[in-house]
Description:
By secondary structure, the chain is an alpha+beta fold. It has four helices and seven strands. The protein folds into two domains: 4-72; 97-153, SH3 type barrels, CATH 2.30.30. The chain has helices spanning 4-35, 40-47, 61-66, 68-72; strands at 97-103, 110-115, 120-123, 128-129, 132-138, 141-146, 149-153.
Amino acid sequence: MRWTTPLIVIVILAALVWAGHEAVALRSAIRASTERPEDPTTQATDALPQPAHDAADSPGAAEVDRYSVLWLRSVRQPPVERKAPVRPPPPPRPVPLKLLGTVTEPGNSFAILVEGRGTQHLCRVGESVQGVKVTAIAGDGVTVQFDGREIVLKPEGGGT
């Protein structure tokens, strides 16, 4: 009975020394992973000691291993930024008017523009209809500005 108490103390001290040694080894692995200027997401997994157990050996070991990247990541490094996907700009809106024809005379030219509902507009250079501004009138078409774009409208039937 007298020898069991010192034996228990020796076993407990040996377990504490072993746990301290493992903590020092883990701490040095963490420091080594933070000193390399590599991608922060791979540093933590590179520095991990390989587990000597299988996930089936201890319950919860797989869950602990999943989060090891979190506690091994250096807080001195900036967080990894995830960039939002770049969406392409929306397609340009179609011009809400069609060219029916033009009347060109020196100093007195007109364009006949038709809305989708069939309403016709007689326009000169500089006039606007539904946000479409007429900038030039020629015998074969009309140049308009719409949504910041310059567009040339041609008559559909080929008439002038």
